[in-house]
Design goal:
This protein is α/β, with parallel strands linked by helices. The protein is about 40% helix and about 20% strand. It binds iron/sulfur cluster.
Length: about 280
């Protein structure tokens, strides 16, 4: 069996940066440092950090002696960051610079008087953060939902993990409503490249393994993509989930991984496949 591992599998730039910041603080053995929510959508990495003393908390008010909070790649709403600072807690900002850019554009569109439309998942933390930078009449949409009534001047920003196809669709729908449209394409290249490479790979192999947190949106997106190409696809978090019957008859097997999957987990998956006979 031939095993092909995607070149873009695993940590993207923003996740690597955030995880490095967290592990660096763990090495410094600073007391009272927490992450606001899990640092990334990967339970194994979160567990390793916990062992080193950096624990996720959901709400700063429920915990005493929080001296510093690491903000994850998705960023946080503006009011929350003001609240945290007001409570005297240090903010260690690991928001991905690409997400920061989207936040900046949402604010800019608001200041320029556009009705801000965010293409993204309403309940995703990144989108919740973006919303806080826009005006109160901000609208969050996905490419499948029909657009509500819009004002005549519309400004669009995009959740970094959305696809270009979704943006094109929303843009063409918006043309039916607005006289003036300003678009900031804030889609992260890393996601698009990973999807493209995965699609190419899935067309060539007999079985695809997609490695990453079950709670990771971009890993789920990779799984959906592979399944849509009718290649047998399995979404796993770790090598222990692999069943021999999934892979033993494959001549070519592809491994891809979400942006929050560390290299050591991908290596373990590869080793397990080799042990089975790859
Ligand atoms: S996927 Fe892109 S935007 Fe998201 S954390 Fe990674 S580099 Fe940043």
């Amino acid at each position: 069996m031939k095993i092909i591992i995607a070149k873009k599998a695993g940590f993207c730039f923003g996740v690597k940066r955030a995880v490095d910041i967290a592990f660096q603080l763990a090495r410094e053995k600073r007391k009272g440092v927490y992450t606001l929510g899990p640092i990334i959508h990967n339970p194994q990495v979160v567990e390793r950090l916990k062992e080193k003393g950096i624990v996720p908390i959901e709400d700063i008010k429920t915990k005493k002696n929080v001296r510093a909070l690491i903000i994850r790649t998705h960023g946080i709403p503006l009011h929350l960051s003001k609240e945290i600072s007001y409570m005297g807690c240090e903010i260690i900002d690991a928001t991905c610079p690409f997400v920061k850019k989207a936040q900046y554009y949402a604010k800019l569109l608001k200041e320029e008087g556009y009705q801000v439309v965010i293409l993204g998942e309403k309940n995703h933390p990144e989108v919740k953060g973006l919303m806080s930078y826009a005006n109160d009449d901000v609208i969050v949409i996905d490419s499948k939902t029909p657009l509500p009534k819009l004002k005549s001047r519309v400004g669009i920003v995009v959740q970094t993990t959305q696809s270009l196809e979704a943006l094109k669709k929303v843009l063409s729908d918006t043309l039916e409503h607005a006289n003036e449209i300003k678009v900031y394409n804030t889609i992260c290249n890393s996601t698009a490249l990973r999807l493209k490479e995965t699609e190419k790979m899935a067309r060539k192999v007999d079985v695809m393994l997609v490695v990453g947190g079950k709670n990771s949106a971009n890993t789920t997106q990779l799984t959906r993509l592979c399944k849509s190409l009718s290649v047998p696809t399995y979404h796993i978090e770790t090598s222990s989930e692999i069943k021999e019957e999934w892979v033993k008859n494959a001549k070519k097997l592809g491994i891809t991984a979400g942006a929050s999957t560390p290299e050591w987990i991908i290596k373990e998956v590869e080793k397990r496949i080799r042990d089975i006979g790859g």
